[in-house]
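Write out this protein's structure.
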Amino acid sequence: MRHFFAFFILAAVLCGLTSGHAGASSPAPVVTDNAGDHNYEGNTARPVRSYLMAGNGSFMTRVEYTGDRITVESYNETGQILSQQDLAVELPLFGGFYSGDQYNFFVFGQENPEEDDGREVIRVVRYTKDWRRLDDARLTGANTVTPFHAGSLCMVQCGDMLYIRTSHKMYQNPSDGLNHQANLTFCVQISTMEVTDRHTAVSRFGFGYVSHSFNQFLALRGTTLLAADHGDAYPRAVVLSRCARPGGEKTFSGYADMVEVLPISGETGDNRTGLSLGGLAATSSAYLVAGCSVAQNEESAFGGVRNIFVTSTPAQNFTQSATELRWITSFEDSQPAGASNPYLVKLGEDRLLLLWEAQEELQFGFLDGSGKLVGNIYHGSGRLSDCQPVILEGSVWWYCTAKSGPVFYRLDPKTGGLECLNGSVSVTLDPNGGTVSPSIVSVTYGASYGFAGWYLDQGGTKLRVTEDTQVTIGRDHTLYAQWTPAPHTHDYKADVTPPSCTEEGYTTYTCTFCGHSYRDTYTPALGHSLGPAVCKQEPTCTDPGLQERACIRCGHSQPETIAPLGHAYDQGIVAQEPTCTSPGTTVYTCTRCGIRETQAISPLPHQYGELVTPPTCTEEGYTTHTCSVCGNSYVDCYVNPRGHSWDKGRVTTPPTPAKPGVKTYVCTRCNENRTESIGPWPNPFVDVEEGRYYYTPVLWAVYAGVASGIDRTHFMPEQTCTRGQVVTFLWRAKGCPAPESAQCPFLDVTPKRYYYDAVLWAAEQGITAGVDATHFNPEGVVTRGQLVTFLWRAGGCPAVSGRNPFVDVTQDRFYYDAVLWAAARGITLGIDATHFMPNRSCTRGQVATFLFRESEG
């Protein structure tokens, strides 16, 4: 005999995290792997796939997109699964999920490589709270090649409106041939499921346009609509936007305030930012944005250690200068790892929870309404995923999967206590040089276990070996370690209490080991099932009756009032017929009680006929109403005289330098004439002789302010005219209208030139498109064909018909319609009866003549 003793050092190693469920009678949770998915993949976010919400008939519901389906699972408050169903994925791309006030919403999308404005790119599907599909809203075209590209998706509801903000790869840019990325915002009216507004174009107008938007958030403060974007290009910053229009309206387009709460260092559009955006929330006094980032100074590296930041922008001073940046953590580059992307959870009006992962643990802290950290940073064991934490019955809940079903976490915001409900871990037992069996055991996550000792058998029923135990050594021995769980794993037994007429039913789950119990699976009270009514008192015309009904389940007797019958009047007798000027009377008699009631018959309406006398240029119009029965009449609907509508007038007697002329105007409605004296027009030009075809047009152009001389005594009528001069003359003839745009498309037209506004106006009106897209050639000579084309376009490109008198004007030329129009209007007579000479240069005299004839109509 000899003493045998062993001393082993045991080590517990966390090998993997798995979830528990209710047992064989319940469905197995769908296995996924979302641990750490709240962190960006590379430089950009992606649509969230995992969601947790309050249950409809259960404590909570898991909603998760798993690639080929959407899984919906209900759970009780201990993390045990109760039911499971699958919903269809309607388009190839998944955008997101939102639990609204009365409905649930999913967003799907598909590629649009052909840039087809009629192709559906995004679909918003509405479900009831018990997961019945109702209808959808569809976004087509939307300047989108790929929806949800290099970004995420966020939704928020305000009244009857659902606002959606995401990202998209846009149509090819014609200037550089690239498909750029930016944010995309649209809204849907929930009651009609119609898209009522969208912002999809490249524009700084709208609700906070950001190009290279790598993550997007929405939030509400009352009816104030807020957005946060992770911007890489224009601007390269974390951008906070505040919509000028109140939430709940059908449109959000227009002006929006924007603040760059955290500028990002580096080159515009670099894609690498060293930053992730984690949350947006509004308090009573400020707007908070949370994320993790490198230092964002000139020395920082985008791959460096990240720290948690919170920015605070006052609601009453929405400016960058008033925005405060606070760093919550201070990890250094020498440390192995920094912080993950955080979550920002609003607990109350001015209290928030901030969670993140760092140093292989879960860390969190509480913020006040200005974004300041209150108290210390808490540390705990747990994981985050792309499941946004939510508040259920006063606690913060989320779940995580690691190639497993969901493991649920509950955080008490009052105490800071963190609890994992249904997870289990594998513990490897290390004998430190000896032999131990079993080498791996599965234990409940967070539970404590005590070492019960070493035994000669696996079941722990034989001899327990201690340092004083004596055994005979005749062969190899294996000692089995025994572990005592403290506390144990509950083994619940269900006891169903059915509902009664007045009390709800429920199931009580009681542990067979320790007696711990809880209630779940509540069933609404049945309500009374009342039998047929028994009349106790008959009602009369004016007094109510009484009846009683007994419940067939519990015998409860319920009295009910029978409404009075009301009088049953006959059809009545007309005692006096009404006329146009006096009422009549009808007498009604109740068939049950004989009471009589007299009612007046309204006087008959006048049978008016209408005679409309329209207004003239000088007399007012009116309508005469005359009754065909009694002859009564009245007049109303007076309309003011229309006034004369004079045409542009024609110079019927041209003025001379010494004698005034006459211009005659004709009313287009009544043909009345009026004249006015014009001139005399002294001729200041020695080179404009009376009798020449351009004599009157030149004087008209000068005195109308359309043109001026080369100097005070010379007009140079035979000098060729440039393109800049022609559009200037035409612009002045039209009254010098102000152009709408301040940006000229032509590089050779500068603001300091006399023709700048005229060319800008002509380009806007479609009168000229330039010699190419970026050049107008203002000093180029104008041909006769070009001149009449300018005039024709300025007149709205009227349709033309009739015979073409000119053999040198062919139908395939750009000036064809313009020349026919000018000939029909008498603007040009051609060089001769059959030739127009469209390619001949125009002289100043010809330009003045054409403009004069066009102005004369």
